[in-house]
Design brief:
The chain has 372 residues and is of the alpha+beta class. The protein folds into three domains: 149 residues, BirA Bifunctional Protein, domain 2, CATH 3.30.930; 128 residues, Bira Bifunctional Protein, Domain 2 (BirA Bifunctional Protein, domain 2, 2-Layer Sandwich); 57 residues, no CATH class. Strand 13, helix 13 and strand 14 form a beta-alpha-beta unit. It starts with 7 loop residues before the first helix and ends with a strand. The N terminus is likely disordered.
Length: 372
């Protein structure tokens, strides 16, 4: 099948697999369902807590998988000091962001599990950036670090409710409401000012890092910042560097995530199509002592490329009659297939959007319509 005949999500799957294979990641395959208890214990980690369940023949409650990461953690065995690098292409069953109803969604992602170091973090960020770039040249990877925010909020001794409200304000980039929220908190004014400063920071890494270094120097968040700085400095001189932005509005649940987190965006799609981060806290919750970092690409978001951005359903439509020989039809199809997709019909379909219309009448070939 020609590349031009593939849908956006189908092209993405092929290209993403190639990228992950190149970096030595191994394919992971899971069952369509897991025990429901696995998901209900970690429902806050899921994109949506809505799960399709059914009862097995033995009476056990199972669920059609809404997530792959939890299954990988549950089923991956590690030796001390070992790192396992896995990628997956799986259909998950969850509420679609587009339709707000249950849908079978193709999801591609990867996980790096084990003794996670700064190179592992850098490599996963590289693969996230390459994943986005394979989908669209106009893409951005927004990066934050939960360790920076967590260190400051822990020092302020915020309650769970206060932490949730503060993070919600930062996520929404609502500095005004954040200021009001912090006014009700009994904490060091310098720490409050630091959170307000972070909430307003956004920009390319090489422009933002010096500013962060200045405001975080000597604070409880310095170690987390140093890790972020080291990992992002490795992008210097890379063509991927221009994609990297620092944005503290990228937030994930503090119960699960502890380090670098990120979201990926491509032009033309209003929501993130890639999301990931370091989730050592989830590993601890699932009784694992190692670390982990990974991401997922939500391919259902790419449907908009096919419905909103594609100019034509097919490049060339060829209409032929009963007087045309098989040889003539075959040669005409081969000629236009070089340029893209070809659809052969006896009767025109008025609903089709095409670039070119070709007719074969009694073995005479004629282009009857050509669009720009």
């Amino acid at each position: 099948m020609q590349k031009t005949a593939l849908k956006s999500e189908e092209r993405a799957v092929l290209e993403l697999r190639s990228i992950y294979d190149q970096f030595g990641y191994s394919p992971y395959k899971m069952s369509k369902f897991e025990e429901y208890d696995l998901y209900v214990r970690n429902k806050d980690f899921l994109v949506s807590d809505a799960v399709i369940t059914f009862t097995d023949t033995n009476g056990k409650l199972l669920a059609l998988k809404p997530d792959v990461t939890l299954s990988i953690i549950k089923n991956t065995q590690l030796l001390p000091g070992q790192v396992k690098k896995l990628y997956y292409t799986e259909n998950v069953y969850r509420v679609s962001q587009k339709t707000q109803s249950f849908k079978e969604i193709m999801q591609v992602g990867l996980e790096c599990i084990g003794e996670i170091d700064e190179y592992c973090l850098y490599e996963v960020l590289v693969l996230a950036a390459k994943s986005l770039r394979s989908i669209s040249k106009n893409s951005v990877l927004d990066i934050s670090h939960m360790g920076i925010l967590a260190a400051i909020m822990d020092k302020m001794s915020l309650s769970k409710a206060q932490s949730a409200r503060v993070l919600a304000c930062i996520s929404a980039k609502n500095v005004h409401e954040l200021e009001q929220e912090l006014a009700e908190v009994e904490a060091d004014e310098a720490d409050k000012a630091l959170l307000l400063e972070l909430a307003g920071i956004y920009g390319k890494a090489n422009a933002v890092l010096p500013r962060l270094e200045k405001v975080l120097s000597g604070t409880v968040a310095w170690d987390a910042f140093s890790q972020l700085k080291t990992v992002l400095a490795a992008f210097e001189g890379s063509e991927l560097n221009k994609m990297i932005h620092i944005d503290f509005s990228v937030i994930n649940d503090l119960k699960y995530y502890n380090g670098v987190i990120f979201k990926g965006f491509v032009e033309g799609i209003p929501a993130s199509i890639l999301s990931g981060g370091q989730y050592d806290k989830l590993m601890r919750k699932m009784k694992r002592s190692s670390g982990a970092v990974g991401f997922a690409v939500y391919l259902d978001m790419l449907e908009r490329f096919d419905t909103d951005s594609k100019a034509y359903d097919v490049n060339t439509v060829i209409l032929y009659d009963s007087k045309s020989s098989l040889q003539t039809i075959k040669e005409t199809v081969a000629h236009y297939a070089v340029e893209g997709t070809v659809l052969t019909l006896k009767t025109a379909d008025k609903k089709l959007h095409y670039r070119r219309l070709v007719e074969i009448r009694a073995n005479e070939v004629k282009v009857v319509e050509e669009n720009a």
